[in-house]
Amino acid sequence: MTAVLDAPRTVPVLATLAARAVEARRLVVDMAASPRGCHLGGSLSVLDILIAALHRVSAGDGTEVVLSKGHAAAGLYAALHVSGVLPENPAPLYGQAGGPYTGHPGPKVPGVRFPTGSLGHGVPYAAGWALARRIAGRPGLGIAVAGDGELQEGLVWETCQVAAAQELGNFVLVVDRNGGQNDGPVADISPLPRLAERFAAFGFEVAETDGHDLAALTDLFAGDRSTARRPLAVVAETVKGKGVPAVEGKAASHYVTIDAARAAKWKRAVR
C-alpha cells in the first residue's frame, strides 16, 4: 500500500520526498553492484520524476504511472520501495534469474501494471489507461515517463496524435531529458530542437521544468485535470547520474557494474 502524505506541496511533504530520493539513489547504487549491474545513469536521472509521480498515485484516485523507458527499472524499483508500494528491498534480489526484479520491469512487481522495455510502448499504455478512466467516468491520470532518446520511436508521436484527437486531458507525458542514450548524446544522433513547440503543435499543453525540482514536479502532478481537454507534456531537464558525484553528468554512467567497495563509497557521497 502506498504511504500517504497529507498535502501535495508542503515543507514536510517535500522534505519526505527529498529523503526518499536520497534513499532511492543509494538503492540504485546497490543494484549497480549486483553481478549484472544496471542502467545507472538513466535510473538516477529519472528518480525525482518517479518519486513525485508516485506521490500523486498515493492520493488513491486511480492514477497510473508507466515507466516507458523500462531500462531504468532499477530506478523504478527503488522509487516504488521508498514510496511504500514495494514492501521488500529489491536491491539484494536485482537481476536474479527467475526473480521479479529484471532489467526491464514486469507485472510481477507490485506497482507495475504494464511491462516495458521495448521503447515507445509505455506511452500508449498510459494513454490507454487515461482513456479507460475517462470512459468509465472515473478520476485519475495516465502518466507516461519516457526518455528523450525514446522520442525517436514513432509510436510515441502516433500516441500523441491520438491523445490530442481524443482530448485526453488526463494523459500526462513526462520526458526525462537527460540528453543521453545508449549510443551517445541525443543531440548527435537525432536532435530535439524546439521540443516544447513540437508538443504544442500536436495539441498538448506543455510545461518545462527542472526534472530534479521535487516541488515543481509535485505541483505539476497534483493538478486536477478532470475538465482538461488537452493532454499535458512535461519536458523535464535532468542530469544523467544525478546525485552520485562520481558519475553525475557523465555519458559513461549509462550502464555500470561496480564492486561492493566502490558502491559503499558512492553511497556515502549521494546527495
Automatic annotation (TrEMBL):
Is Membrane included in the keywords of this UniProt record?
A: no
Q: Which terms are listed as keywords in the entry?
A: Thiamine pyrophosphate
Cofactor entry: thiamine diphosphate
Q: Which domain of life is it from?
A: Bacteria
Alphabetically, the GO molecular function entries are: magnesium ion binding
Q: Which family does it belong to?
A: Belongs to the transketolase family.
What's the protein called, per UniProt?
Answer: Transketolase
